[in-house]
Specification:
The complex is a heterodimer of chains A (about 180) and B (about 270). Chain A is mainly α and about 180 residues long. Chain A folds into 2 domains: about 100 residues, Rna Polymerase Sigma Factor, Chain: A (Orthogonal Bundle), CATH 1.10.1740; about 70 residues, Arc Repressor Mutant, subunit A (Orthogonal Bundle), CATH 1.10.10. Chain B is an alpha+beta fold and about 270 residues long. Helix content of chain B is about 40%, strand content about 35%. In chain B, the strands form 4 sheets. Chain B has a 3-stranded antiparallel sheet with strand order 2-1-3. Chain B has a 3-stranded antiparallel sheet with strand order 5-6-7, with helices on one face. In chain B, strands 4-8 form a two-stranded antiparallel ribbon. Classes of the chains: A mainly alpha (about 180), B alpha+beta (about 270).
């Protein structure tokens, strides 16, 4: 009867595991190459911050690495990877919620903090976008900027088409209101 | 860069700034090679973290950590640091001094040197202090270590060397014998200032060793509260058995007599 041995693997097994990990990483990067820049930019847009977006992309990349064996059809890699990116985005948002409860000095300083500069349009848009819920922000970014269709958006968000349409409409309305500083509901 | 679709749904200025935000996200994008390096580094970090957490979570590591904590946790104990000597002169003057010595006889001799007169009464008692120490440190202190190189030494010289090392470690030797014929036999008995008895017998057949090495904890002959003679005898026999020794143990009140010998077939 074979016996499971936990802890240190035999050297041969460790080398095999390392080789397997190398192959999987290579395969992931090959699949990612055609949409690499786009996925990275989407992550930044979802976070309204380049630094946070890079962290989000890295997080999604690791999750994709772990789940690559679940990908049956390589032609659906784009929607598969973006679904992982959105999932990581939601998770990050939940994590960031708890950050609000930290003492002020531990909370992250916003980028450009302390610099005397006028708020330009892009920055104002980033602030307005950041106020939206994660699902609303995803709807705006993916539909308005990334060119995903409503049906793709519905699949990525795991929602019905009608739910996505109403979410998108609500997101536009809130974005406009936040962008103009309009306090009326 | 994609243009915002459905411009009619967003005001032109909103759409324009949304596009500007989209453009800003494309600045200084890391290339695929940087992504590859980042993935490799993240996997390596995660692997190290998992190894660490796996090590900490394993039951063996937990038991080891607990054992280490118990061994290293300081506990109070009384230990002897020198001797207190009370000198009383014929005229009734009393002087108390502290003497560093290996044993009571040496302490008495040193105290006598201070008194300078032969008619001074000298009382010697161990100077005991309360100290905090770990179980590990106590065990290390209690462990007897003797190592004697036999080359060029007669049996008597080897025995004398053992006696000297016993004294250096706070033991007063009562009987030390070394004999090397067909087999090498080392037998010693000693006691310390706290009354602990030490008995050791080593018998080795075959080629004569070039070293005598003894490293062991003394037999604990202390009587715990309520312990009968039979129970104390059993306690001593059990310790002998653990060391591969058989013993004729006699306990009668304060008198404890142990004659230990190597169990048949037991390896050295």
């Amino acid at each position: 009867m074979s016996r499971q041995v936990s802890g240190a693997l035999p050297l041969a097994s460790a080398a095999q595991a390392e080789a397997g990990s190398e192959r999987r990483g290579q395969r992931l990067l090959e699949l990612l190459a055609p949409l690499h820049e786009r996925a990275r930019a989407t992550a930044r847009r979802l976070c309204c911050s380049n630094a946070d977006g890079d962290d989000l992309f890295q997080d999604a990349l690791l999750r994709a690495f772990d789940r690559l064996d679940d990908l049956r059809d390589e032609s659906s890699f784009r929607s598969w990877f973006f679904a992982i990116l959105l999932s990581a985005h939601r998770r990050k948002h939940r994590r960031d919620f708890w950050r609000r409860l930290l003492p002020l000095e531990q909370a992250r300083e916003p980028e450009h903090a302390g610099e005397a500069h006028a708020i330009d349009g892009a920055e104002r848009m980033a602030q307005a976008l950041a106020v939206l819920s994660p699902a609303e922000r995803e709807a705006i970014v993916l539909f308005e900027l990334e060119g995903f269709s409503l049906a793709e958006l519905a699949e990525l968000q795991g929602s019905s088409l009608s739910a996505v349409k109403s979410r998108l409409m609500r997101a536009r309305h809130r974005l406009r209101r936040e962008y103009r500083g309009d306090q009326t509901p | 860069m994609n243009q915002p679709r459905h411009p009619d749904t967003l005001d032109p200025d909103v759409a324009s700034d949304l596009r500007a935000l989209g453009d800003a996200a494309c600045r200084d994008l890391p290339d695929l090679a940087a992504t590859r390096r980042g993935l490799q580094a993240a996997l390596a970090r995660r692997s190290r973290a998992r190894r660490r957490s796996g090590l900490l979570r394993s039951p063996q590591a937990g038991a080891l950590a607990l054992a280490a904590a118990v061994l290293l946790l300081p506990i109070p104990r009384r230990h002897q640091s020198g001797w207190d000597a009370t000198l009383r002169s014929p005229s009734g003057d009393v002087i108390e001094i502290r003497v560093a010595a290996r044993n009571a006889d040496e302490a008495r001799r040193r105290a006598a040197a201070v008194a300078r007169t032969n008619d001074t009464d000298i009382y010697i008692s161990p100077h005991l202090e309360l100290a905090w120490s770990s179980v590990y440190a106590m065990a290390r202190d209690r462990l007897l270590r003797i190592d004697v190189a036999l080359e060029g030494k007669t049996d008597e010289e080897a025995a004398a060397e053992i006696r000297l090392q016993l004294v250096e470690q706070g033991w007063t030797p009562t009987d030390v014998n070394v004999s090397r014929d067909a087999e090498t036999i080392v037998h010693l008995s000693a006691e310390d200032e706290a009354g602990r008895q030490l008995r050791f017998l080593q018998r080795r057949l075959g080629a004569q060793p070039d070293h005598i090495t003894i490293e062991q904890e003394p037999i604990d002959q202390s009587r715990e509260p309520g312990m009968t003679d039979a129970q104390l005898r059993e306690k001593i026999v059990a310790q002998l058995r653990e060391r591969g020794l058989e013993g004729d143990v006699t306990v009668e009140g304060d008198r404890v007599l142990v004659r230990a010998h190597r169990q048949r077939g037991a390896a050295d």
